[in-house]
Automatic annotation (TrEMBL):
Keywords: Fatty acid metabolism, Ligase, Lipid metabolism. Residues 451-525 form the AMP-binding enzyme C-terminal domain. GO terms for molecular function: ligase activity. Belongs to the ATP-dependent AMP-binding enzyme family. The keyword Secreted does not apply. This is Long-chain-fatty-acid--CoA ligase. Gene3D superfamilies: 3.30.300.30, N-terminal domain of ligase-like. Residues 18-402 form the AMP-dependent synthetase/ligase domain.
Length: 542
């Protein structure tokens, strides 16, 4: 027998219509690329999103078309989140920190029809425009005063505010199928080309509901949320959707994520919670520390994307009275998988034991199931000792990558994360290692295979291996291990200079260590674990 309930699809636009009707007065404050502070309310956001939806239709954007953004965290980007997805097109957020070749690849692979960009991204847009075969409409996210010259862009550049001004706000959000695609984000955290994760309206709304729960990110209308995690990184961990669902005030930091700038925003706007990668918090803590400041409104911060050290958790909590929620997720998980929020019996534990738990990546939020499996594929026990590859499944976990039908990531209907973890009896997961061959530096991926490919064509290199070595500021940095050819005296400087122009500057290895031989396993595979064990503290001790 079927239930007798209304059939209402779970749509991204429903978050906005809820915010407009029930939290219309709530504020959104943005530090703009233009340099000033902009503020308006959810009801203005909703109105302008409808204008933009009409403008997109005028530009010929059809349901299912991809619309790219190269933009920081700000209100215009938020408008696009709703205007594009709400009208049935697919919002494709592009990471401007990636190498130009990767950006070109992603725009071409996604077949973006329109690309919106913040004005400071003009050099990227000029560099990629000539390299993309399909005609693309470029829109600068600014007003007439700040419009950039359109040099190098044969089709010219449209002005965001002119599109809004020319459009009516009379637009009815279409009744889409909840399984239609709503947004697209590529991950470079795998080997080979970046892979597209295509979220649906349903997966996005379900993720929003679960992520806002008290034991997850714990968001409410009482919060003022500062998403430091970029809106091009898995939808800023869902915060632009969560804020509409719960009616929280939003504060967008724009392009400047330095400690002084963030601190000022936090204090002036009375921010209660924030979210970002450990590197950003290190900068903030260093600033607050050096100026002997304190936080007067901030109650908690979500730290994820890379492991958060117990020292950082302790400093936030003990010195600044800001609770840390350590979280783990992936682009393929929309992104939330686990959050380390304590269970009642853990709160009274001695501080050291509690801190050790908080340094774990946490327990699964409802909707995500997880297990760890050994090399034989069998599940290993949750005994806080046995480690295995972390596998997940759930309604906001990727099924297959966009336009990569041949790549089936699953094993027995579980998604293998490439992370190695253990789980304790309370269900708290802790990442202990990584099976995938990538380095995460300040929240951004660097492919060790790409680095090795460049180094190995150097005429004096016999073998090259690149590993992730721990780093105080960036979490991890690439360390290059080189076996020279017989008789070669090639130097570190010569090898590092060889990378110029071949990889993005921030992807260049930080150092080279010369070794006699590369350790190989029985099948001839490089034993990277052994090299990691030997050299992973290189930057901490050098
Ligand atoms: P991304 O798809 O770029 O969000 O990267 C996801 C990957 O980042 C995960 O598979 C982990 O390897 C890593 N990661 C994310 N959060 C954490 C965390 N809290 N601790 C350690 N690694 C993390």
């Amino acid at each position: 027998m079927k239930g007798l309930m209304m059939q209402q699809p779970l749509l991204v636009s429903s978050l906005l219509t809820h915010a407009e009707r029930h939290h219309g007065e709530q504020e959104i404050v943005s530090k703009r690329v233009e340099g000033d502070i902009h503020r308006y309310r959810f009801r203005d956001l909703a109105k302008r999103a409808r204008c933009m939806a009409n403008a997109l239709a005028e530009l010929g954007v059809l349901p299912g078309d991809r619309v790219g953004t190269l933009a920081w965290n700000g209100y215009r980007h938020m408008e696009l989140y709703y205007a594009v997805s709400g009208s049935g097109a697919v919002l494709h957020t592009l990471n401007p920190r990636l190498h130009l070749d990767q950006i070109v690849y992603m725009i071409a692979h996604a077949d973006d029809r329109v690309v919106f960009f913040d004005v400071d991204m003009l050099p990227i847009v000029q560099a990629i425009a000539a390299r993309i075969a399909n005609p693309i409409v470029f829109v600068a996210m600014t007003d007439r005063t700040y419009m950039p010259a359109s040099d190098g862009l044969p089709g010219g550049v449209l002005c965001y505010e002119e599109l809004i001004d020319a459009s009516d706000d009379d637009f009815e959000w279409p009744h889409l199928d909840e399984n239609d695609a709503s947004s697209l984000c590529y991950t470079s955290g795998t080997t080979g080309h970046p892979k597209g994760v295509l979220y649906s309206h349903r997966s996005t709304v379900l993720h929003t509901l679960a992520a806002a729960l008290p034991d997850a990110l714990n968001c409410s209308a009482w919060d003022t949320i500062l998403p430091v995690v970029p809106m091009f990184h898995v939808n800023a961990w869902g915060l632009p959707y969560i804020a509409c669902m719960v009616g929280a005030k939003l504060v967008f930091p724009g392009p400047r994520l330095k400690g002084d700038s963030l601190y000022e925003l936090i204090e002036v706007e009375r921010v209660t919670m924030s979210a970002g990668v450990p590197t950003v918090w290190q900068g903030l803590l260093a600033y607050v520390n050096s100026q002997q400041l304190s936080f007067s409104s901030m109650r908690r911060t979500v730290i994820g994307g890379a492991a958060c050290s117990p020292a950082m958790i302790a400093e936030f909590q003990e010195v600044y009275c800001v609770d840390v929620l350590h979280a783990w997720g992936m682009t393929e998980l929309s992104p939330l998988g686990t959050v380390c929020s304590l269970k009642p019996h853990q709160v009274s534990m001695p501080p050291d034991e509690r801190l050790a738990i908080q340094a774990k990546q946490g327990r699964a939020v409802y909707g995500i199931d997880m297990k760890i499996v050994g090399d034989d594929g069998e599940e290993v026990p949750w005994d806080n000792a046995s480690a295995g590859e972390l596998m997940v499944r759930g309604p906001w976990v990727v099924d297959s990558y966009f336009r990569c039908a041949d790549v089936r990531p699953h094993r027995d209907s579980w998604f293998p994360t490439g992370d190695i973890a253990k789980i304790d009896a309370d269900g708290f997961m802790q990442i202990t290692d990584r099976a995938k061959d990538v380095i995460k530096s300040g929240g951004e991926w660097i492919s060790s295979v790409d680095i090795e490919n460049v180094a190995s064509v150097h005429p004096e290199v016999a073998s090259a291996v690149c590993i992730a070595a721990r780093h105080r500021k960036w979490d991890e940095r690439p360390l290059l291990l080189i076996v020279r050819k017989a008789g070669s005296a090639v130097t570190t400087d010569e090898l590092l200079a060889f990378f110029d122009g071949k990889v993005a500057r921030w992807c260049k290895p930080d150092a080279v260590v010369f070794i006699d031989a590369v350790p190989l396993g029985a099948t001839g595979k490089v034993l990277k674990n052994r090299l990691r064990d030997q050299f992973q503290d290189y930057f901490l001790t050098a």
